[in-house]
Amino acid sequence: MELISPTVIIILGCLALFLLLQRKNLRRPPCIKGWIPWIGVGFEFGKAPLEFIEKARIKYGPIFTVFAMGNRMTFVTEEEGINVFLKSKKVDFELAVQNIVYRTASIPKNVFLALHEKLYIMLKGKMGTVNLHQFTGQLTEELHEQLENLGTHGTMDLNNLVRHLLYPVTVNMLFNKSLFSTNKKKIKEFHQYFQVYDEDFEYGSQLPECLLRNWSKSKKWFLELFEKNIPDIKACKSAKDNSMVAFWTLAYVLSHPDIHKAIMEGISSVFGKAGKDKIKVSEDDLENLLLIKWCVLETIRLKAPGVITRKVVKPVEILVVCSVRGSDVYYFNTL
């Protein structure tokens, strides 16, 4: 009897602990773990993230957790949870992106946390709507220069066309103009490295560099390029979001001949018929080209360049369920 009592107590204790954990899990989002330790569903998620998220939303509901590459990622896909997501003090933006910034740009945690808010306020002021008119002239000149280099005839993959136009324009706008070389060999090298860095950015932000040698090489090439030009650097922002929005806007417009025709007629009505003379674009001119603006905004809605992310610092309740500390939470509107 003396031997049975401790055994029974241990069994009852384990059962009580199991039930307690189960009760806690009932309040947590459904978790898609996979069967491979640490990797989880990383391979399936990495192949087609948007498709994976949509299938998970249909199967598990508006909030669910994905375990991949050692990370817990909780996705919120309905607007009802957005207020808690954006305003709660139990979630933090800087902690959510700090590790990604370190992996992709080699910026240490202490430097990032010390300067992020100051840089954000500065850039928000300089790139605000009130100041955008200051960039119109330079932007027009840069685009003219790139278009002249392309010539008037020829064929090119649309994705490559957008890259060849926007990569140098973005670099020249944000950094010193001399940073982007005019040497054809150097330009080709820049495009090759940027394309590798751009396309594998998501993998580079999560995986060790030893598994992504080409991406790591591209990252180091850009860091060395920037280090040589540090005195002249104004700000740093990837051209990826800009090029993706431009690509999809052009793709959608060109796939709808009626829209394309209406846009061309609108441009002709504002700037006149196409000729050899360079056009100058002002804010007033853009106000008369509302169809282009609507096309860009609709493209951003359909092909949003990213999701909003936060790091859970304390257990937080979103849409009835509770997300655990240490998880990354993403707001992802599937509409």
Describe the 3D structure.
With 335 residues, this protein is α/β, with parallel strands linked by helices. Helices cover 59% and strands 9% of the residues. The protein contains 15 helices and eight strands. It has a six-stranded mixed sheet. Strand 6 and strand 7 form a beta hairpin. It is elongated, with a radius of gyration of 25 Å.
Order of helices and strands: HEHHEEHEHHHHHHHHHHHEEEE
Strands, count: 8
Low-confidence stretches: 232-239
**Tally of individual helices:** 15
Radius of gyration: 25 Å
Largest sheet: 6 strands, mixed
Quick one: overall form? elongated
Summarize this structure briefly.
The chain has 335 residues and is α/β, with parallel strands linked by helices. The chain has 15 helices and eight strands.
Strands, helices and their partners?
Elements: H1 4-26, E1 31-32, H2 42-47, H3 49-60, E2 63-68, E3 71-76, H4 82-87, E4 91-92, H5 93-105, H6 109-126, H7 133-150, H8 158-174, H9 184-199, H10 201-204, H11 213-228, H12 240-254, H13 257-271, H14 283-287, H15 290-302, E5 308-312, E6 316-318, E7 321-323, E8 328-331
Parallel strand pairs: 1-2, 3-8
Antiparallel strand pairs: 2-3, 4-5, 5-8, 6-7
Describe the structure using short key phrases:
8 strands; six-stranded mixed beta sheet; alpha/beta; 335 residues; two-stranded antiparallel ribbon
